[in-house]
Amino acid sequence: MRSPVQDYLEAIAEQCSPDTSGHVASYIQELATADPDVFGVALATVDGHVYEVGDARAPLTIQSISKPFTYALALADRGMDAVGRKIDVEPSGEAFNEISLSATTGRPRNPMINAGAITAAALVEGAGPRERFERSLAFYGRFAGRTLEVDDAAHASEMASSHRNLAIAHMLTEAGVLEHDPEEVVDQYVRQCSVLVDTVDLALMAATLANNGVHPRTGDRVLSTAHVEHLLSVMTTCGMYDAAGDWVSAVGMPAKSGVSGGIIAVLPGQVGVAVFSPRLDEHGNSVRGVDAFEKMSSDMGLHLMHVGRGARSAVRSSLDLAQLRSRRRRSVEEEAVLDEHSGRARVHELHGDLLFAGAESVVRTVVEDDAELVVLDVRRVEEVADVARIMLNELHDRLRLDGRDGALVDPGGRLAAPDGRDATAQDAVVVLDTRDAAVEWLEERVLERHGEHLVRPSRTDARDHPLVRGLGDEAWAVVEPLLERRHHTAGEVVLEAGSRFAGVHLVVSGRAAVRAPGPDDAWWHLLTSTAGMSFGELALGSDGRQETQVVALDDLELLVLPADALERLDADRPQVAAAIWRALVRDAYQMTDRALRESAVREHS
Ligand code: GLN
Q1: pTM score of the predicted model
Q2: Fold type of domain 4-300
Q3: For ligand 1, is residue 97 a contact (CB within 6 Å)?
Q4: What topology is assigned to 462-603 in CATH?
Q5: Quick one: pLDDT band at residue 147, thresholds 50, 70, 90?
Q6: CA–centroid distance, residue 25 to ligand 1 (Å)
Q7: 145 has which bridge partners?
Q8: What is the pLDDT of residues 80-98, one digit of tens each?
Q9: Helices 225-238 and 199-210 sit at what angle, rounded to 10 degrees?
Q10: Is 99 in the pocket of ligand 1 (CB under 6 A)?
Q11: Pick the CATH number of 315-450 from 3.30.70.1730, 3.30.750.24, 3.40.50.970, 3.40.190.10
Q12: Which residues are within 8 A (CB) of 282 and not within 5 positions of it... i.e. 6 or more apart?
């Protein structure tokens, strides 16, 4: 099947191609004699797919499109401050080859016109012009994703008529901006302009910038994020010479054009686009190139200032303990405390990108909410900006200062505090892997804070176990001898899935996990039983067959009323048996009620 994107790009090229207005550059012999009709379009995505149309493989000399890349290398070599002391970043509103410097600073106005570009070329590290050039060439090659070469004839031909550039270089030397021999620097600069590329190379170079400095195909990190941001800003305001204003309003992408007829443009995070058509308008920009970009931008919505959907809240749902409960079984008393204080513990599930606006919506939700305990579940979050990490870690600190507390469900550690943050504060954030673990964490905190009156036994006496507590002394005297005391160590399987009903298991101390078989041999944790709970009786609801597996989580002490003993009790002492059944049913209802509540919440959130 043909891609509609390919068809669309071809249609654009077809619409633009009849326009033969404009003139090829004539001041460089090689360009004056070039074929004026070639027309190539290429679009490269940040994941490395390239669409190419027409003469996208026809070679051209890179010319001024080299400027942003040399400037980038100077930034990488010397840093933003050192480069900033030599070259300004103000749009000049002048032609690219103007022999002028800023009247206020005495520096070239920006790196995208010749004065700034010649200065940038001189700022590249290297023992001499040759090495500075070789390093530039290798650097461009990393943006293109292949080794590039120079068109020596183009270099020679431009050198034969480079009086303006020599004049600019001498002016720069005179002004104390250029520290190397001006003629050598011009030679280096003209050589960089003569590097051979094609439209596909240019699209990939632009896509590397769109991809935040990482080549979409090779994965090479060519330029740092900070330098990409700076470079794209300068391209936005200065990339199209004295047509920068028209370009930004009509096309709206950071761009750079060259006198051989190439234009590149970058849509950050999305695509790099390049067009090649040699006839130029009065500003020195490709006529069909500008036209094609205007059409692509408006039809494809590529304008940088296009305001899409408003920033959505990053909070997808907010639930409290009235709607969420962990898989850990609780005593009746604990349930009562959790019910009474359910609104004090909340889980906010976040989604989308956590950039400034998203993080702000989370902060506001938590600040305006009076929940005492807050869990942020960030598993559905996509991009996380540093500012969001800082804000949410700060939010956590403030919760604690307020006597509140918070935790994260963040198995990937995406919200880990950025470097340089106080390590102790960072350590204090509780990070959990699953929603269930987080809800259990909330329950424990609520019980700690509001269930002081509950003595939470780590051990139940046989007589005190809720299942038999209600029995009278006489009934207890009947039941007690039937109970078998058993011990299991951590990891031991207490009940195998598929086994027959083996009796009612009362937990005296320790913890047991009830698990169901999940996909890929994994086990799904259903619930945790602790002192005062029981398990095993659920088999009675499934035809006497144990459907789950029960495993000891630590040293587990049990009292078991075996299946045959229960049967005998049914027959011989129906009154006593009924009392036990009643306790079992109450327990089962409590569990069902919780499960129903939970599935209702799941459906609606
Ligand atoms: N080599 C050309 C020059 O310096 C590049 C200019 C351009 O592409 N606009 O004149």
Answers
A1: 0.72
A2: Beta-lactamase (3.40.710)
A3: yes
A4: Jelly Rolls (2.60.120)
A5: very high
A6: 10
A7: none
A8: 999 999 999 999 888 888 8
A9: 120
A10: no
A11: 3.30.750.24
A12: none
